[in-house]
Design a protein that fits this description.
Blueprint lengths: L1 H18 L6 H15 L6 H32 L4 H25 L3 H25 L4 H42 L7 H9 L4
Helix pairs in contact: 1-2, 1-6, 2-3, 2-6, 3-6, 4-5, 4-6, 5-6
């Protein structure tokens, strides 16, 4: 049964990494999934591995959020963007990511979904920032400058967060490998089979 839970954990962290492109808290969901696994599955001998992994994941998740927020805020504020533009840029990025995923999946599953989500998320950020600046009465040129800044900032922030997400996935995979290789580990499948089905002496 432990093997099943381990496989589900690995699948979950990859899935949560992917939904980070949609503006969803994928890195935090990775942390939650790993925390549930750490509480319920590991043996006493390997529990410390998972608590160390949890500490690393927590730090990485916080860093990922900080990098994404700072990149977006810097992009909009660098060109004098308003708070309204920042909010609309955020909303536009989420809508664009969802739409890009749908369109990209229809063109090329997986790769198309990722590229579509990333590009249309940035385009949505641009449009939201542009509309926000137009709303407060700024010129088209000034609004477009803020929108372009939001576009590149969204790309940079999302890319950085996804890279950090990759590191989080790697931490989980290393913890999984260590759990099965450390002394005192849970029985391997062959051992379990022999104990249950071979006659005892």
């Amino acid at each position: 049964m432990e093997i099943v839970w381990t496989i589900l954990l690995v699948i979950s962290v990859f899935f949560f990494w992917l939904i980070g492109l949609l503006g969803l808290p994928g890195n935090w969901l990775m942390l939650v999934a790993t925390g549930i696994y750490a509480l319920l599955v590991p043996t006493d001998e390997t529990a410390s591995v998972w608590w160390i992994a949890m500490g690393l994941l927590l730090v990485l998740a916080i860093v990922g959020e900080a990098v994404e927020m700072l990149a977006s805020a810097h992009g909009v504020r660098k060109h004098g963007g308003s708070k309204r533009s920042a909010i609309l840029s955020f909303v536009g990025a989420i809508i664009g990511a969802i739409f890009g995923t749908i369109v990209g999946t229809g063109i090329m599953p997986v790769i198309g979904s990722l590229v579509g989500a990333l590009l249309l998320s940035a385009a949505g950020a641009l449009l939201g920032a542009f509309l926000g600046e137009q709303w407060i009465g700024r010129t088209v040129d000034d609004s477009m400058q803020v929108g372009q800044a939001a576009f590149w900032a969204r790309l940079a922030g999302t890319a950085a967060k996804m890279i950090i997400g990759c590191v989080m996935v790697a931490v989980v995979l290393v913890a999984v490998c260590m759990e099965w290789w450390l002394p005192g580990e849970a029985p391997q499948p062959v051992t379990v089979w022999s104990q249950n089905f071979l006659p005892s002496e």
